């Protein structure tokens, strides 16, 4: 289980649930012009493989943490994940 404090949280202004995450994630992807490649779901988590201008990222949500965050696939993608998180927090505030 992850804690929201371990990551730069995307959903600062809105609580997410397992059921509300897909609609929220689709809006996130659409508004930022991301490409969705794959969805993975377990009993208490959802992870979506996304792309932004060649950077591959995981959009992650865990039920018990109640938050969403981005995980870069490589060190090169870390800056992109940080930029997207900060940009999303600005436009969704």
Question: Can you describe this structure?
Answer:
It holds the Pfam family DUF3630. This is DUF3630 domain-containing protein. By secondary structure, the chain is of the alpha+beta class. It has one domain (4-91): TATA-Binding Protein. The chain contains two helices and four strands; from the N terminus they run αββββα. It has helices at 21-32, 78-91; strands at 35-41, 45-52, 55-62, 67-72. The chain has a four-stranded antiparallel beta sheet with strand order 1-2-3-4. Strand 3 and strand 4 form a beta hairpin. The longest helix has 14 residues, at 78-91. It is globular.
The description of the largest β-sheet is: 4 strands, antiparallel
Quantity of strands, as a count = 4
Mean pLDDT: 89
Number of domains: 1
Strand order of the largest sheet: 1-2-3-4
- Written as H for each helix and E for each strand, in order along the chain, the element string is HEEEEH
Percentage beta strand: 25-35%
Global geometry: globular
- Which stretches are low in confidence, meaning pLDDT under 50 for 5 or more residues running? none
Per the CATH scheme, the topology name is TATA-Binding Protein
